[in-house]
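STRUCTURE:
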C-alpha cells in the first residue's frame, strides 16, 4: 500500500465519501460526485458527494441547535476541547501533511508545516479561552458601574481556498469555537479530501466529549455552496479566503443583509532590497517568498524592488539560485517545488508570461512548462523572473504562480512609493541594515500593507499576529492578536446600584 493510501486509511477517508456533515452524522444528498485529482501525477485520489440544498439546510438547522448549547459552555471548557483537537492533530500530523501535500501539490515540508500551523492555533485558542477580556469604565453617574463584555455570534461560515486547504480553516474555526460559535465550512472544491480528514478528526474529539452534532459542520461543493452561505441570514459572520473577485461578491452579498464578513483576498507582495541590505539574507528571503508553494500563496513575493546599484548582482544571484531548484513530486523531500494546482493555473501562468514579454519585460530566468518523466500531470512549470518598468501593467496584477517581477529604484522614498502603488495591500518587506530605512518603511508614511516586515520575507506569518491586509486584500483580520473580536458581538453594560435615577449628560426629566 502506498504512502497516500496508508494516510487516507489512517485518516478515515474513503475513496468515495459523503461530503456533508454536522459532526459524526454524514448526510445523504442528491448532489453530483466531485472527484479530487492530484496535480502531482494527475491521478484521482477519491471523490465526495456534494451537498444539495436539502442537506445544506439540515446542516444549518443542526448548527443553530448546537449554537444554543455551545455558547453556554464556559470558555475554559471550550478551550479544553480545542486542546484535545490540537493533540489529535499532533497524532495525525504526518498523515494529514502527506494528504495536503499530495492533494494540493505543495512540498511535504510545507504540508507538514500547514498541519503544525493548525496545532499552533489550537494552542493559541486554549490560552485565549481564559482571556476573552472586556473593559471596565468609570461612569459619570454616581453609584453606577460600566463595563463591556463579548458574546458569541452564533454560526460562522468559513469559505477556504485550495492553497492552504486546512490551515486557514483552522485559523477561523479554532478561534470561532473558543469564542462560543459553531462553524459551517465550505472548503475548496479542489481539495475536498483534506477537509474530510479534518472533519473526521474534530468530529471524533467532539463525540468523545459527549458534545452535540452541529458544532463542526462541513458542506462540500462548488461556488453555489458559497452563495448559499453568503445569502443565509442565519449565518451572521462569513469568513472568506480567495481572490479579490470572489471577495467582492461575498462582501456585497453579506453586506446587503447587514451581516459581517472577514475577507482575506489577493496579494501583490513586494520586497525592497536596499543598497544596505545583507544580500545573503535578501536572496534567501526572496527565493522562498517567490517559489514556496509554487507561487500559490497569498503572501508570495511577486515584486522585488531592488536598488539600482545592486540590481544586476541580485538578478544574477537569483538566476543562479533558480537554476539549483529541484522541481518534482512534492512528497520527495529533496524537491523544493511541486506543481501548480491544475492545468487552468498553468494556462494563466503561460498567458501572464506572454503578456509580460509583449510588454517589454526583460527575461532574467525564463518560464517553461516542464514535460517528460515525472511531469505527466502537465502541472509543473519553471519559476521565472522578469525585469519590468515601474509602470508595468502586469506588475499591478496577481498571477497565482511562481512569476517574479524585478523593478529598479534609486532612493527609499521611491521604493516605498513603488511598493504601495498597487491595488493590493497584504504583505511587504524591506531588507536593510539601516535603522532609518527600516523606520521609514514601518512608519505611517511607509508600507500601506497589513503586514510589514524587516529583514524577513513576505511569506510565513506566525499565528500570534493578526493576519490580513488592506485595499483590495479585503481589510479583514484572522488568527492571532485580538482578531478574536471579529467573531463576537460587543455589549456595553451599565449597572445602577443606587436608589436614584440620574441621567447621562446631566439631563433633567423630573415630573
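SEQUENCE:
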Amino acid at each position: 500500500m502506498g504512502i497516500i493510501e496508508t494516510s487516507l486509511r489512517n485518516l478515515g477517508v474513503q475513496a468515495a465519501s459523503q461530503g456533508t456533515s454536522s459532526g459524526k452524522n454524514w448526510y445523504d444528498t442528491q448532489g453530483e460526485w466531485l472527484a479530487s485529482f492530484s496535480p502531482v501525477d494527475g491521478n484521482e485520489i477519491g471523490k465526495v458527494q456534494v451537498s444539495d440544498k436539502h442537506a445544506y439546510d439540515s446542516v444549518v438547522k443542526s448548527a443553530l441547535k448546537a449554537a444554543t448549547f455551545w455558547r453556554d459552555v464556559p470558555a475554559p471548557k471550550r478551550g479544553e476541547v480545542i486542546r484535545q483537537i490540537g493533540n489529535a492533530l499532533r497524532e495525525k500530523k504526518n498523515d494529514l501533511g502527506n494528504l495536503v501535500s499530495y492533494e494540493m501539490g505543495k512540498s511535504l515540508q510545507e504540508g507538514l508545516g500547514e498541519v503544525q500551523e493548525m496545532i499552533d492555533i489550537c494552542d493559541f485558542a486554549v490560552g485565549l479561552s481564559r482571556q476573552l477580556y472586556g473593559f471596565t469604565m468609570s461612569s459619570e453617574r454616581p453609584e453606577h458601574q460600566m463595563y463591556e463584555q463579548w458574546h458569541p455570534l452564533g454560526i460562522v461560515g468559513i469559505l477556504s481556498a485550495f492553497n492552504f486547504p486546512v490551515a486557514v480553516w483552522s485559523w477561523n474555526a479554532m478561534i470561532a469555537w473558543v469564542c462560543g460559535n459553531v462553524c459551517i465550512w465550505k472548503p475548496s472544491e479542489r481539495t475536498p479530501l483534506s477537509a474530510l480528514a479534518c472533519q473526521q478528526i474534530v468530529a471524533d474529539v467532539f463525540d468523545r466529549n459527549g458534545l452535540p452534532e452541529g458544532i463542526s459542520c462541513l458542506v462540500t461543493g462548488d461556488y453555489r455552496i458559497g452563495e448559499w452561505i453568503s445569502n443565509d441570514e442565519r449565518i451572521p459572520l462569513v469568513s472568506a479566503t480567495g481572490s479579490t473577485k470572489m471577495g467582492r461578491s461575498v462582501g456585497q452579498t453579506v453586506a446587503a443583509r447587514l451581516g459581517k464578513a472577514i475577507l482575506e483576498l489577493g496579494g501583490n507582495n513586494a520586497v525592497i532590497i536596499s543598497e544596505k541590505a545583507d544580500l545573503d539574507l535578501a536572496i534567501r528571503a526572496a527565493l522562498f517568498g517567490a517559489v514556496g508553494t509554487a507561487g500559490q500563496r497569498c503572501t508570495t513575493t511577486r515584486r522585488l524592488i531592488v536598488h539600482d546599484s545592486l540590481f544586476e548582482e541580485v538578478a544574477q544571484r537569483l538566476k543562479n539560485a533558480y537554476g539549483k531548484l529541484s522541481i518534482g513530486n512534492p512528497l520527495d523531500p529533496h524537491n523544493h517545488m511541486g506543481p501548480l494546482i491544475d492545468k487552468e493555473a498553468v494556462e494563466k501562468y503561460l498567458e501572464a508570461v506572454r503578456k509580460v514579454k509583449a510588454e517589454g519585460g526583460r527575461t532574467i530566468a525564463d518560464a517553461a512548462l516542464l514535460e517528460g518523466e515525472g511531469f505527466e500531470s502537465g502541472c509543473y512549470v519553471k519559476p521565472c523572473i522578469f525585469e519590468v518598468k515601474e509602470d508595468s501593467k502586469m506588475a499591478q496584477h496577481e498571477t497565482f504562480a511562481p512569476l517574479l517581477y524585478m523593478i529598479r529604484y534609486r532612493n527609499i522614498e521611491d521604493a516605498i512609493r513603488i511598493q504601495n502603488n498597487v491595488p493590493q495591500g497584504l504583505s511587504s518587506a524591506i531588507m536593510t541594515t539601516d535603522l532609518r530605512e527600516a523606520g521609514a518603511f514601518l512608519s505611517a508614511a511607509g508600507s500601506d500593507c497589513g503586514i510589514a516586515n524587516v529583514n524577513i520575507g513576505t511569506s510565513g506569518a506566525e499565528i500570534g499576529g493578526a493576519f490580513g491586509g488592506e485595499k483590495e486584500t479585503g481589510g479583514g483580520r484572522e488568527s492571532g492578536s485580538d482578531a478574536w473580536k471579529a467573531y463576537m458581538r460587543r455589549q456595553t453594560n451599565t449597572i445602577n446600584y443606587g436608589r436614584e435615577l440620574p441621567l447621562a449628560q446631566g439631563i433633567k426629566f423630573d415630573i
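REMARK: The mean pLDDT is 97.
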